[in-house]
Amino acid sequence: MNADAVTRFAADKMLGRLARWLRILGCDVLYGPSLSGRSLLSAARRERRVVLTRDRRLARRADAPSLLLVEDDRFREQVRQVVSAFAIDVRAGLFRRCVECNGDLEEVPREAAAGRVPEFVLSTQQRFRRCARCGHLYWDATHVARVRRELAGMGIAPAAGATENAC
Ligand SMILES: [Zn+2]
User: Fold this and answer.
1) What distance in angstroms lies between residue 30's CA and the mean position of ligand 1's atoms?
2) How much is the pTM?
3) Which among 25, 83, 94, 121 has most CB atoms closer than 10 A?
4) DSSP 8-state secondary structure symbol assigned to residue 88
């Protein structure tokens, strides 16, 4: 709803799975293979992001910007911790961000997907979303169902009534 109020993160390179899941939930997450230690802190400071890390030494540094020490090795617990710590509205941002590159997803007409997805997908799916940054295409059949199942498993599934139309 209030996009500016959404917390932006910079995730430690050891938190790849967490980063992907936060993107699925709509969070703006900076993540890359070089982001750890000092480079992570400076990237977060530069872009005013909250650091997510498992690195206790890093968390203790006096010059650390806003930071959340991720407590668990299991990604489901990690997602739960972050969602709870920042009161993330799971329904608001779901399926709005590209898992691969953090770009914004936009709805595109079926014709835009022609030739870029298998024929049976084109003939059975109505709605497609495309990443404005990398062009990756998403459609409901696999992505949405899988994500909802997983979120339910984490105990943070969107409330009933929040259907695929929520995004
Ligand atoms: Zn993308």
Assistant:
1) 13
2) 0.84
3) 25
4) -
